[in-house]
């Protein structure tokens, strides 16, 4: 045997005489060179030839350093060293290098210590006075081989225990003879717990027929190779998908049964299920996008709310993804939901009764909740939704499994609710939910634009002026302002959120700050700048009662002056029911009274053209950005407010603010110079 094939031995011994004695024994052991130490644990053939395979260290620390740097195939360890004594010497070495085999060297009186060393992880122990060359070589060889075998066994056990493969030997009647330890990792069962059990009792009921058929074929044909996928119940009650193969080895004395090889494919099957569901949802989403695009194109050309709602229902009902659709709105007196438009309902609406009245069971469905909250409501599975029990029989009769109630909203106005029904469960999740929710906003915007067109085509709008007495008590403030606060422009930035721009005398800034601290719906204010009229400010409001009421009735707040009393000026379309407006304002504040009503004539032709661009060409977000920037002083020079400040007020990024602003400017100036704003 070549010299580079000899095992690398680290001798750790502080007694020079004992160390020299051990070296002499190794030199005399001719048989050591004759033995084959093949295997990575014995030979490092990449190291090349070495003059001396034995390295001697007299201290434990030096031995550990050597093992860190060079390693060894075996360690001959004396337990009495200058820097460590007793069994702790062995423990310390194995804590640092658990893979290296150790042969402990003891004295004649230390046999008990040697036995304890074996229990702590040593492979062998030798009494120094009894060592001879043959015994030394054999002990080294056994120590190396035993540690290598133990390492391989540990590897095998780890691989088996944590494998996703579970193999078993099963009798023809399904009784489990043996199952691999991996059953605990995959199924949660102790393998001994499964022995003697009938495997068929753990198979999913829907899969038992297929599994039994394969077993019967195995029993009848020893050459048959069974393959079957089935679900097996785990210890925690869940189900795991197994891909199984089987062989009939009843003629093998060591087996005498069916060998079943299984592989856990749960993740693969779940992935395939999700992929298929995604494909179905993607197809529905593509169809829905076509519907939304079709609705968007169709409703833009319509001039009335009725036409817009009818077209939206017809396009949805005609889509392969949905069964039928309808639009409803609540009656202000009875609070019942009345149908405004429908398509494909086929008698469903004759059998259903819905409401928005609190406490009425008919208001607890998705339609009632959507109208009350202004948020989209879905039923993903009519069989599993406890709130849908009242209408479950109707769902079975008309063949739908899920539904969505989408508020038709624009800014702060809810025009009604769009209901859509599908014959699929989970039809309104994720992207599909987002798209249908957007459809509600699109229809709401189209209705608002149509009504705005009608208002712009008329000769005048109705302007109403209200006075609210004892305003401090009404809004929950400590006192009324000493100097009037004028709120001159209101911009709706989100549902229930408004930015208000106005002016106040310099002496009234403290009053404005005090109101912001005490009035619950006054959230914050910032000084924008100063001019001849006083200090200009930006005020953020959340759900202010008066402004919310005006907006919900289709009106716009033109001016509010807050002093000893509150004076509100608002404009409404000419066909507005003024009594309904007055009643709503009084519901918000008992002391409110209407003090003036006027007909306001529209502006000149050029203003009409710009109004068309403002209402039709600009998006809702673009209008919001322009209004906010204007009243915040962004267009003044020098600028009173930076673009970053305006973007922060709107809770958007600076680049997004610039993008919306540039797009709006382009459309407005295109109309001013006679160009086509659409270009």
UniProtKB/TrEMBL annotation:
Pfam families: BAT, GAF_2, HTH_10, PAS_3, Response_reg. SUPFAM superfamilies: CheY-like, GAF domain-like, PYP-like sensor domain (PAS domain), Sigma3 and sigma4 domains of RNA polymerase sigma factors. Residues 152-222 form the PAS domain. InterPro entries: BAT_GAF/HTH-assoc, CheY-like_superfamily, GAF, GAF-like_dom_sf, HTH_bacterioopsin, PAS, PAS-assoc_C, PAS-like_dom_sf. Signal peptide: none annotated. It comes from the Archaea. The keyword Transferase applies. Residues 226-277 form the PAC domain. One of its GO terms (biological process) is phosphorelay signal transduction system. Keywords: Kinase, Phosphoprotein, Transcription, Transcription regulation, Transferase. Residues 8-143 form the Response regulatory domain. The keyword Transcription applies. The modification 4-aspartylphosphate is found at residue 78. GO terms for molecular function: kinase activity. PANTHER family: DIMETHYL SULFOXIDE REDUCTASE TRANSCRIPTIONAL ACTIVATOR. This is Receiver/sensor/bat box HTH-10 family transcription regulator. It comes from Halobacterium hubeiense.
């Amino acid at each position: 045997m070549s010299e580079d094939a000899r095992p690398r031995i680290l001798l750790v011994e502080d007694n020079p005489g004992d160390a020299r004695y051990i070296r002499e024994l190794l030199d005399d052991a001719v048989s050591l060179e004759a033995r084959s130490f093949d295997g990575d644990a014995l030979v490092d053939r990449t190291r090349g030839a070495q003059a001396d395979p034995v390295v001697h260290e007299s201290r434990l620390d030096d031995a550990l350093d050597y093992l860190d740097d060079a390693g060894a195939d075996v360690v001959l360890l004396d337990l009495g060293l200058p820097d460590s004594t007793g069994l702790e010497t062995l423990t310390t070495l194995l804590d640092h290098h658990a893979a290296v085999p150790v042969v402990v060297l003891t004295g004649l009186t230390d046999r008990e210590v040697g036995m304890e060393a074996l229990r702590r992880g040593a492979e062998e122990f030798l009494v120094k006075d009894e060592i001879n060359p043959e015994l030394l070589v054999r002990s080294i060889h056994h120590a190396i081989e035993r540690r290598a075998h133990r390492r391989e066994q540990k590897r095998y056990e780890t691989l088996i225990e944590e494998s996703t493969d579970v193999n078993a030997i099963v009798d023809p009647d399904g009784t489990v003879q043996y199952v691999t330890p991996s059953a605990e990792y995959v199924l949660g069962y102790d393998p001994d717990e499964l022995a003697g059990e009938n495997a068929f009792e753990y198979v999913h009921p829907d899969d038992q027929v297929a599994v039994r058929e394969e077993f019967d074929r195995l029993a009848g044909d020893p050459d048959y190779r069974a393959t079957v996928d089935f679900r097996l119940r785990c210890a925690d009650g869940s189900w795991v998908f197994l891909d199984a193969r089987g062989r009939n080895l009843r003629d093998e004395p060591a087996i005498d049964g069916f060998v079943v090889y299984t592989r856990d494919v749960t993740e693969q099957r779940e992935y395939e299920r999700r992929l298929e569901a995604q494909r179905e949802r993607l197809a529905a989403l593509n169809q829905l996008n076509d519907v939304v695009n079709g609705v968007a194109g169709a409703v833009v050309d319509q001039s009335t709310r009725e036409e817009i709602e009818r077209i939206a229902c017809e396009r949805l009902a005609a889509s392969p993804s949905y069964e039928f659709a309808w639009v409803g709105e609540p009656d202000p007196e009875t609070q019942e939901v009345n149908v405004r438009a429908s398509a494909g309902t086929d008698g469903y609406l004759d059998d259903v009764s819905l409401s928005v009245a609190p406490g009425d069971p008919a208001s607890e469905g998705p339609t009632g909740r959507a109208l009350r909250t202004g948020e989209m409501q879905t039923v993903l599975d009519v069989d599993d939704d406890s709130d849908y029990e009242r209408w479950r029989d109707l769902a079975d009769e008309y063949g739908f499994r899920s539904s969505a109630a989408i508020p038709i909203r624009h800014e702060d106005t809810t025009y009604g609710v769009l209901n859509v029904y599908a014959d699929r469960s989970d039809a309104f999740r994720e992207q599909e939910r987002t798209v249908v929710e957007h459809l509600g906003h699109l229809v709401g915007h189209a209705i608002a634009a149509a009504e705005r067109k009608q208002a712009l085509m008329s000769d005048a709008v109705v302007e109403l002026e209200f006075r609210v007495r004892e305003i401090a008590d009404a809004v929950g403030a400590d006192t009324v302002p000493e100097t009037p606060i004028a709120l001159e422009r209101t911009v709706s930035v989100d549902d229930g959120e408004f930015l208000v721009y106005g002016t106040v005398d310099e002496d009234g800034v403290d009053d404005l700050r005090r109101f912001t601290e005490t009035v619950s719906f006054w959230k914050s204010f910032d000084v924008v700048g100063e001019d001849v009229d006083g200090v200009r400010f930006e005020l953020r409001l959340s759900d202010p009662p008066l402004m919310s009421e005006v907006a919900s009735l289709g009106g716009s707040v033109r001016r509010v002056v807050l002093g000893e009393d509150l004076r509100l000026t608002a404009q409404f379309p000419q066909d507005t029911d003024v009594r309904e407006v007055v009643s709503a304002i009084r519901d918000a504040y008992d002391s409110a009274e209407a003090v003036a009503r006027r007909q306001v004539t529209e502006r000149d032709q050029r203003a009409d053209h710009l109004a068309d661009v403002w209402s039709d060409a600009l998006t809702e977000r673009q209008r919001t950005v322009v209004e906010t920037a204007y009243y915040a002083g962004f267009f003044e020079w020098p600028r009173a407010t930076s673009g970053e400040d305006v973007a922060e007020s709107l809770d958007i990024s600076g680049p997004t603010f610039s993008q919306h602003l540039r797009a709006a400017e382009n459309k407005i100036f295109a109309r001013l110079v006679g160009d086509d704003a659409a270009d």
